[in-house]
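Below is how a single chain appears once it has passed through the pipeline. First comes the sequence as given, then the structure the pipeline wrote out for it. We keep one example in the README because the format questions we get most often are answered faster by looking than by reading.
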Amino acid sequence: MDDDGRFADHCRYESDGRIHEWTSDTFTKYELPHDQGPTNQETTRPSILPPLRESMVHEVNVYRLLANYTDIPVPDPKSISSGFDAAGRAYIRIERMEKTVRASAAFKRCWMPLQHRSSPSDADGPCDRCALTIHRSVDEFVQCTVLPELRWLRSRTTGLDGFVVPPQWDEFVFVLHDLGLEHLLLNRLILRVAALVNVEEAGYFPEEMQWWTFGRAELEALCGDEDLARRHIGLLSLSPTLTDGGQER
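Resulting structure:
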């Protein structure tokens, strides 16, 4: 627990040239220094990565779009800052809502020891009853709120405002490419989803590209599905790029 009694939901990890840092108050994502990023195994030179700085600007735009055109809870755009730090690295920082925990970290303890444990102070360690509540809550949120709301967002151009991660094709449903437990914040008191975060890979794409899996193992299985990959490659190779578009509610 933190000094003020809050659950210490802290972590830091690197992924695709980015550093992700969670504290009890903020979620910050910033680019690695160029000489510390991944390298090409054959040439040992720094790998060419997607445009990180542009993707962070894009993520801010995604939050604004979801806040303005859907009922999906996301961080208030006013709580988001972005730019360059003192070392010249691009970053995006989001102020976390009070009393929230990452869904992926919520399984580490019991959130209702008064009801689930023999002692109100016995909160350490996983709790099967809390885990079941979290599972049902998150799945209901995705199935009944996120996916239906995204289907309302339609466009005749791919990506968002001309920026696409990954490259363009012509279908037009708004898709969250990295929808998982680690990108959902739960209200710790009632174990309901409070907000969706880390949306830099969102945009208008074929509806088939929208994945939702509860566990990381399921997601990795989808990523390794060669037949699915061939279908997506077919969508990419057969679809011409359209040039005019917009969204409707």
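The chain has a mean pLDDT of 80.

See the next section for the split statistics.
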